[in-house]
Design brief:
Elements (H helix, E strand, L loop, with lengths): L17 E5 L4 E5 L23 E7 L16 H5 L5 E5 L5 E5 L2 E4 L15 E7 L5 E7 L4 E8 L6 H18 L5 E8 L5 H6 L1 H14 L5 E9 L1
Length: 232
């Protein structure tokens, strides 16, 4: 609360919804702040009617219809948001990118950077381009600087533990090629029936470093292997 915000930042009131207008290019942003850390009421129900002649954007921190991994803040439904008549809804709180509706667009952009293995895959923002008729077009823009990934490596038929290490390295090289330019933090799951099972289970303290060394050798060291396990 003591931070001095830049001049171009607008803070929505917490006791009521409000609208900020951008006269050029005629955008009206409707929103409301949280009065406390957790708000369990449907804030969107009180949002104002859209302004004629503006591109109307609803800004809302919400769990929408609910996510098991997120607190049920400001619950609402996509149908109720669409009924407001806004041109676009920009939603926060849920860290996974998801488009709840395309007409109108109701979008969770997700967070900008994955924080742990449960936030794997590309993270970033959603860019919205609006044509002369007011129709929005969306595209996802990755912005993360480190990417988390879960790698399930099939080792069926591998002759020995070194063959398993080779398969892991090959899988990680392909994974790095699919995410160029970014360091990857990877959790490896080794799965399948293999003659190497006994050796891997008997001496994980030996083979886990072998797998990590293979990760370091792949893709110029852009891959870091996290926790590994064997399921055969």
């Amino acid at each position: 609360r003591s931070l001095r915000l830049p001049d171009n930042v607008r803070l929505f009131p917490a006791d009521r919804p409000a609208t900020f207008r951008l006269e050029e290019p005629r955008v009206a942003v409707h929103g409301q702040s949280f009065a406390g850390p957790a708000v369990k009421e449907d804030l969107a129900a009180g949002y104002p009617a859209p302004l004629p002649g503006y591109f109307n954007l609803g800004l809302l921190h919400t769990a929408a219809t609910g996510y098991a991994s997120h607190e049920p803040y400001a619950p609402c439904t996509p149908a109720a948001l669409a009924a407001k008549g806004y041109d676009y809804w920009a939603l926060g709180h849920v860290h996974q990118h998801e488009v709840l509706s395309t007409d109108p667009p109701i979008v969770f952009p997700g967070n900008l950077q994955g924080r742990h293995i449960r936030e794997a895959g590309p993270k970033g923002c959603v860019r919205v381009r609006v044509d002369e008729a007011g129709r929005p077009a969306l595209d996802f823009a990755p912005l993360d600087v480190v990417r988390w990934a879960a790698a399930e490596v099939a080792v069926d038929g591998a002759a020995d533990a070194y063959a398993v290490v080779d398969r892991v390295r090959e899988h990680l090289e392909a994974l790095a090629a699919a995410h160029p330019g970014l360091p990857l933090a990877v959790r490896i799951l080794i799965r399948g029936a293999t003659a190497a099972h006994g050796a891997l289970q008997a001496d994980p303290a030996r083979w886990a470093p072998e797998i990590r060394a293979g990760a370091a050798a792949s893709a110029d060291g852009r891959v870091s292997a996290g926790k590994g396990s064997v399921d055969a």
